[in-house]
Amino acid sequence: MNISVTPPNSFAPDGEDMKRALRRLAGGVSVVTTGSGDRRTGATVTSAQSFSVAPPVMTVSLNRGSSAWRELRETGVFCINALSESQRFVAERFSGQGGIQGPARYEGAEWTTLATGAPALIHALFAADCEVEEIVERHSHALIFGRVRALRIGSGAPLIYAEGSYGSFV
């Protein structure tokens, strides 16, 4: 006999419920950077991932209200900088803690550029320098597909984010 029972703690979620649930999902921390000069900006994300290795394509999801989204859409280039456990301060700066915005987010770390001209963190676990291939806009966010034009590989242990805190996987 099949009986359908609503599981305990099951409900129709709103945005805050989704944020609370997704905090339980551990993810690697990256900083997405774009722009140049006084227009440099970026955002801390846990949504960066590989989409394809041949050809090399990365994806990242950005809030369409963010300065990083606006600049990325205008320039058509971005860099995904995967952070190491020693780069928590970079994640905090690019998350906007303390009201830090624009080029001020880049202070305290060493940066360069690769093929596209998007800022690349010199000591990142890896920096995937991308050119926008496709954008899918839905609801509050955009899913950006980026063809990797240059790759820089570093070393270290990844910075992880879960339950509202940064940590590492050792």
Summarize the structure.
This protein has 170 residues and is mainly beta. Helices cover 14% and strands 42% of the residues.
Structural account:
By secondary structure, the chain is mainly beta. It has a single domain (24-168), classed as Pnp Oxidase, Chain A (Roll), CATH 2.30.110.10. It is 14% helix and 42% strand. The chain is built from three helices and twelve strands. It has a seven-stranded antiparallel sheet with strand order 3-2-6-9-10-5-4, sandwiched between helices. A three-stranded antiparallel sheet has the order 1-11-12, with no helix packed on it. Strand 11 (159-162) and strand 12 (165-168) form a beta hairpin. The chain is globular. The model has no long low-confidence stretch (mean pLDDT 94).
Poorly predicted tracts of residues: none
CATH structural class: Mainly Beta
The domain tally reads 1
Might you state the CATH topology name?
Answer: Pnp Oxidase, Chain A
Number of helices: 3
Supply the helix-strand structural class.
Answer: mainly beta
Output the helix-strand order: HEEEEEHEHEEEEEE
Strand numbers in spatial order across the main sheet: 3-2-6-9-10-5-4
How can the largest sheet be summarized? 7 strands, antiparallel
Oligomerization state of this entry?
single chain
Helix content: 10-25%
CATH superfamily: Electron Transport, Fmn-binding Protein, Chain A
Radius of gyration using CA atoms only: 17 Å
> What fraction strand?
35-45%
The CATH architecture is Roll
Instruction: Tell me, briefly, the overall form.
Output: globular
